[in-house]
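[Q] Does anyone have a clean structure-token version of this?
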Amino acid sequence: VQLPHRVYTTEQQEWLSYNSTRQVNQLAPEVNYRLFSDMAAVPKPVAFGARESHITADMDVRYKDHEGATVTAYDLRFAATYLIANPDPQHPITLEMNFPFPQTAAVLSEVTFAVDGAEPPGVTYSMQGINWKAAFDPGQERKIEVRYRAEGVGSFGYGVPPSQRMSDFDLRVTIRGAQKINIPESALEPSTRQDGAQDAANETVLSWRYLNTITNRNVQVELPALPRLAYAQRVDRLGPFFLQLALAAPLLTALFLLFWLAAMRLESLRVAREHTVLLGIGFFLFYPLFIFSAGFMDLPLAFVVSLVVAGALVVGYVVRAIGSQMVTIYLVPLLIVFYCLLTRGLTAPRYLGMMLVISAVALAALFMWRVSRHMLQASLVEEKPTIVAEEEQVAPTAAKEIATPVEEEKQTLPHDAEDTQRYCAHCGQRIESSFQFCPRCGKDAQVTRQCARCGLEYIPAGEMPSFCPACGNGLAVESSGCQTD
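[A] Here you go.
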């Protein structure tokens, strides 16, 4: 929560605050007039939008860095030509024109003001703007040209005369060296856009050409900072997303563990508490890793890196602690749902509802499949004893008659083949013939006796010679095994 507010140093905050107010927003000229016959009357505004306005703005973009913080600066060359006229075709007027300079510009250079190609007498210049008064004959038109050069940061705007009919409005903005250009939705949309114009790969030309138009929208061009922002700026920009993901991480971790425990219960597996705790910690680490790595790289790349690291941590632990079968059946689908689907829904809120529905369907399908599989296996186990009992009742004599040759054939099998199928008589663990102790229960595996006739392996009653409980063959006690008495 506090990360976005602590990422900047004091010097960075002051520098960014200063540059945030240096965008150039040029307003349209203001024109007022008085009739010669009524000089005491209040000046009336001329319908300035009814005349022509031809404007060009050339911007050379560069990116400025200060201790890791970045802004987009540009050198602006502004040139405008306005055609103004006496709106009264019968009376002369005194016309006053005020061209305001952008108040955010600290320095204005190469400032010129020309009327019909020459600088008129009586024109005044100041940091607020250019002021000029002149007499106009009935219906007289004059061409005004204004030029200046300034430095701006972040965006450029031009204020269209509000609620006035523009007979011919033409604005052309040429941008060189910008890696990204945005037009806000609330701004006046450009009529044409050309990227890489005039064989310049890093040049973009935006044009606004409107005829007989009335609008309250202004022209606005935004120049974001470099796509590869400094860590502080990335954290600041992604602050709302980080906060949302951080608040959701504990809930997603709890849900993941809940579904995992339900899966283990369904599979009749008892998982130690420490395994569950460590699995939850490994799963949770994905979210802080994703948040902090997003400060150094793009979101998709940060997601992939975090997914690989956290996924390998969780999968590797489950394989070592429980087994690989549970990873394939349950763990991988759960990671896809919680890491990919739900996290994607948080990164793009417009997809959150759809991702929740897809996740619910996927989890329901997984558990329905496993429950149905277990129910089918249980039904088969219940039916098997019944089938065996029926077969024994049908032909018990034949079964005994058939069993006798089988037992005799079993006597002819090599002892090596029998040894490969040895099992511990104490716990049932399969053991090799060379094992002296059971690897599972640790008890002595050599105390058992194996009948040479039928191959039965059992624990004798005592140290005296005993008889095989299956075939009645007499056995002699030996430390290495048994033999026919």
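[Q] Thanks! Anything notable?
[A] The chain is about 35% helix and 25% strand.
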